[in-house]
C-alpha cells in the first residue's frame, strides 16, 4: 500500500510561531492531509568550535536540538487540538535544500509550505537562497507565506501568460488554473483569473525596426488576439466573465494593484527551469516574487496540486 500524501511545513530556525504555521494547519484541515513540520538548525561558529572541542560541541548541539525539538512538539500539540494530524522533527544540517530533496524522496508531498522573510526597513519580502532554490528547482509545489491576513485563503488569484514561448508548454496555463481552482475549492475561496497585456514590451522589442506597433495598430491587434485566447482558456475552465480580468499595462504594478484592491490571499503562478540568472519564467515572475504583494503558490509544469 502506498504512503498517503502529506504537507511539509519548513519551520524557521528561530523558535517563533509564524503565519506559515496557521496557513499549514488550515490547508491540512481543508485538504484532509497529514502535516509534517521540520526545522533545520546549523551554526557555523559552533561547528568550527567543534573541531577543537568535539565533546563540548556535541553536548551544546544536542542540548539546543532537544530544546528546539520540544518546542516543535508543543506546537504540534496545539495543531493536533485543532484536528490536524501532525508530526515534527529537527535536523542539524548546513544545506537544507539537499535534505528537503530527501524528504521528497522518502515521503509523497502534495505541497511544501514556508515563510518568506520580510525585510521591515523596506516593507517588502526578501527571498533567501533557500526560497529561490525551492522556487527554481523543487519538483513539488511550493507555497511561500508572506502574510497572516487569512489563515485559510479566501481569495485566490491565478496568473497566466497566454503568449508562452516555444519552450513553455501552453498546457501549463491549464495546470496553473487547475491548481488555483483546487486550492479555492478546498478552502471555499473565490477564484479570480488574471492576464496582463504589456503592449509596451512588444513596442520595445520592435524598436530595432522602428515604432511599427504604434504606427500600424499591430499592438491593438495583438491585444485583441491575447484577449480572445484568454477568454477561451477561461471559458474552458468555467471561470465566469465576472472573475476574468484582462488588464493592459505593466505587469508587476498592475498585479500588485489588483492584489491590493481585491485583498488577494494567494497568487498561483508557474515557475520553470529557464535560461538566465534567476532561471524563472521571465522577468515578470522574477520581479513579482521580489515584491511579493501576497503569499505565492508556485507550481512546475506537470506538477498538480493534490486535493
From TrEMBL:
Q: Tell me where the signal peptide lies.
A: none
Q: Alphabetically list the UniProt keywords.
A: Cytoplasm
Q: What residues does the UspA domain cover?
A: 18-145, 177-300
Lineage top rank: taxon = Bacteria
- Subcellular location, in the record's words? Cytoplasm
Q: Which Pfam families match?
A: Usp
Residue stretches spanning the membrane = none
Supply the name of the protein: Universal stress protein
Gene3D superfamilies named in the record: 3.40.50.12370
A single cellular component GO annotation? cytoplasm
Tell me the protein family, please.
Belongs to the universal stress protein A family.
InterPro entries tied to this protein: Universal_stress_UspA, UspA
Q: Which PANTHER family match?
A: UNIVERSAL STRESS PROTEIN E
What task does this protein carry out? Required for resistance to DNA-damaging agents.
Does the record carry Cytoplasm as a key word? yes
Amino acid at each position: 500500500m502506498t504512503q498517503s500524501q502529506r504537507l511539509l511545513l519548513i519551520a524557521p530556525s528561530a523558535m517563533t510561531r509564524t503565519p506559515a504555521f496557521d496557513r499549514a494547519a488550515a490547508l491540512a484541515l481543508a485538504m484532509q492531509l497529514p502535516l509534517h513540520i521540520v526545522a533545520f538548525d546549523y551554526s557555523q561558529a559552533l561547528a568550527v568550535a567543534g573541531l577543537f572541542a568535539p565533546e563540548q560541541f556535541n553536548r551544546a548541539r544536542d542540548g539546543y536540538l532537544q530544546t528546539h525539538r520540544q518546542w516543535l512538539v508543543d506546537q504540534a500539540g496545539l495543531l493536533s487540538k485543532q484536528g490536524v494530524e501532525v508530526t515534527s522533527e529537527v535536523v542539524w544540517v548546513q544545506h537544507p535544500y539537499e535534505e528537503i530533496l530527501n524528504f521528497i524522496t522518502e515521503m509523497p508531498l502534495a505541497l511544501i509550505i514556508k515563510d518568506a522573510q520580510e525585510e521591515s526597513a523596506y516593507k517588502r519580502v526578501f527571498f533567501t537562497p533557500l526560497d529561490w532554490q525551492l522556487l527554481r528547482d523543487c519538483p513539488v509545489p511550493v507555497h511561500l507565506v508572506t502574510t497572516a491576513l487569512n489563515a485559510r485563503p479566501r481569495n485566490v488569484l491565478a496568473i497566466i501568460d497566454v503568449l508562452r514561448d516555444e519552450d513553455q508548454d501552453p498546457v501549463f496555463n491549464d495546470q496553473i488554473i487547475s491548481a488555483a481552482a483546487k486550492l479555492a475549492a478546498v478552502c471555499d475561496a473565490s477564484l479570480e483569473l488574471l492576464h496582463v497585456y504589456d503592449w509596451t514590451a512588444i513596442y520595445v522589442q520592435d524598436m530595432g525596426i522602428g515604432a511599427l506597433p504604434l504606427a500600424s495598430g499591430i499592438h491593438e491587434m495583438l491585444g485583441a488576439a491575447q484577449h480572445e485566447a484568454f477568454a477561451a482558456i477561461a471559458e474552458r475552465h468555467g471561470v465566469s466573465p465576472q472573475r476574468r480580468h484582462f488588464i493592459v499595462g505593466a505587469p508587476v504594478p498592475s498585479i500588485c494593484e489588483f492584489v491590493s484592491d481585491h485583498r488577494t490571499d494567494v497568487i498561483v503562478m508557474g515557475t520553470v527551469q529557464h535560461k538566465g540568472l534567476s532561471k524563472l519564467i521571465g522577468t515578470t515572475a522574477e520581479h513579482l516574487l521580489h515584491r511579493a504583494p501576497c503569499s505565492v503558490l508556485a507550481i512546475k509544469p506537470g506538477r498538480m496540486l493534490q486535493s
